Amino acid sequence: MRAQSVNIVGAGLAGALLAILLGRRGFAVTLYEKRPDPRNTLPESGRSINLALAARGIRALTRAGIMDKVQPLLIAMRGRMIHELTGAPSLLPYGQRESEVIFSTGRAPLNRLLIEEAARHSNVMLRFGQAWSGNEYATQSAPTIAADGGGSAVRRSLAAAGLIEVHEEPLDHDYKELTLPPVGGHHVLDPHALHIWPRGGFMLIALPNPDLSFTATLFLARNGPHGFESLHDPQSVQEFFRREFPDAVPLIPDLIEEFRTHPQAQLGTIHAAPWHVGGKVLLLGDAAHAMVPFHGQGMNAAFEDCALLDELLESHEDWGTLFAQFEAVRRPHATAIAQMALENYIEMREAVRDPKFVRHKALALELERRFPDRFIPRYAMVMFHPEIPYGEALRRGAVQAGILQELDGRRDAAGGVDLQLAEQLVRERLPVLKIASVRAGTSVTLEP
After folding, report:
1. CB within 8 Å of 327: residues ≥ 6 apart
2. Spatial separation of the C-alpha atoms in residues 220 and 236, rounded to whole Å
3. Has residue 115 been placed in a domain?
4. Which of 304, 320, 346 is the last residue of a domain?
5. DSSP symbol at 132
6. In three state form, how does the secondary structure of 399-418 look?
7. Same domain for 134 and 39
8. Domain check: are 384 and 246 in the same one?
């Protein structure tokens, strides 16, 4: 498609990356954002949910030519550090290769970098402090791509006009962020792990930051005797944390004040149909398919949206067919990752404590070692293999779960697995995959 004018609504992560990609192609891009320019303001406190950059996001940033600039913002995490009520924390690695890590990064610094890179293109115009009204898409001659997040004003205006249907599935759990500051110039926990305090019906997590702090997030039911509504004063908050997360309490010196002042934010899944209105408007990223954050794929999926749209531009001559094909290709995979994100909440807060889960994970890694072109754990397919679409990861993951269940149920008296049966099941049920030789797409250095 020849270069022309295009509007992008929302200068968050997806909107800014898309502006870079389209700017590189010579499009005249106008990027609208209702908030002030983040290059000149402090980030909002307590609403970030630290991001986990994985292979899909890395591939999109590499496509935009900026991965080398993003690298200094990243901290490699090699697995989940599980904090039970008793005993020492234990690490569950994400994978079995050195490159199979995910990267913690802060939303605000990454967003600033993307906006700075977009601004380097003379054909990209940034308009901050400018909200997008509901009628503007109808009067603009240029197509509009809405990347304005889960609370998308464009999506709401299209729904109000009867042009699309929207279904929201709120989660009955909310979240609140807290801070684990550094002590003595060091992280207070292992910085190369995502720390989880799983407690069955709820959990606390903590991700490392380059400033040596951790951002901790409490995910808890909104209502009920074990929900946020029961934490109504300093005493109830202190008692709850001392009971459930005793090893974390000394690491959160401002617990009471942050719990009081930081917002209690909601989570949910958003389904919209269609994502586009002819060649005039397209919803992209969270504006089209917001999901819960428990698989660390919201940003990665949005970046993958941007990369796909950029790729499809090479074979389309009009916006209408481009938008239609983008939705046709992307929708089933957006649905798949939304489902896996919900399932991963159960895994993080509960299943990681189950000996059966640990056995299955160990067996999955063994099968991957023996049959690397056929058996790849579902988590690894999602996080480390962008060449495997989300929908295929969901489908193959279900097949693999059945194999693991069957093998686990037929262990011998000593707890051993019938590896001959394992080979038979894997070869019968899992066709060979074509996978990339470079899995994470970026170098990994773990400092002691």
Report:
1. 274, 275, 276, 282
2. 14
3. yes
4. 346
5. P
6. HHHHHHHHHHHCCCCCCCCC
7. yes
8. no
Distance of alpha carbon 360 from alpha carbon 16, whole angstroms:
40
Mean pLDDT of the chain: 93
HSE-up (13 A, CA, CB side) for residue 363: 26
Q: Pick the more confident residue, 389 or 413.
A: 389
Residues 127 and 176 in one domain: no
Residue 442 has pLDDT above 80, yes or no: no
Q: With DSSP H G I counted as helix, E B as strand and the rest as coil, what are the percentages for the chain, rounded to 5?
A: 40, 20, 40
- Which residues form the domain of 412? 350-429
DSSP 386: T
Q: How far is the C-alpha of 120 from the C-alpha of 69, rounded, in Å?
A: 14
Same domain as 313, residue 243:
no
Same domain membership, residue 141 and residue 243: no
Please tell me whether residues 255 and 379 are part of one structural domain: no
| Under 8 Å between Cβ of 153 and 132 | yes
The reply to whether 141 and 40 lie within a common domain is yes
How many domains does the chain divide into?
A: 3
In a domain, 68, yes or no: no
Tell me the pLDDT tens digit for each residue of 370-399. 999 999 999 999 999 999 999 999 999 999
> Could you tell me which residues come within 8 angstroms of residue 401 by beta carbon, excluding any fewer than 6 positions away?
360, 378
Share of the chain above pLDDT 70, in %: 94
Q: What is the pLDDT of residue 444?
A: 38
Task: Assess whether 182 and 327 both reside in one domain.
Answer: no
Which structure tokens are listed for 58?
Answer: 């890395």
Phi-psi region of 377 (alpha: psi -120 to 50; beta: other; left: phi over 0): beta
Residue pair 278/164 in contact by the 8 Å Cβ criterion: no
Question: 2 in helix, strand or coil?
Answer: coil
